[in-house]
Amino acid sequence: TAEDLALRPPCPLLIVDPDDEPLDGPLRVVSAFDLTNSAAEAFLLGADLVELHEQGGNVTLLHVISIPHGASPIIEGHAMPATLEAHLDASTQWARDEITALLNRRGESLDAISASVEIRPGYPIHEIVATAEETKANLLTLGSSGRSRLTDVMLGGVGRSVLRRAPCSVLLAPPEPKTTADDLDDE
Question: Which of 26, 74, 100, 169 is least surrounded, with the fewest CB atoms within 10 Å of its CB?
Answer without folding.
Answer: 74
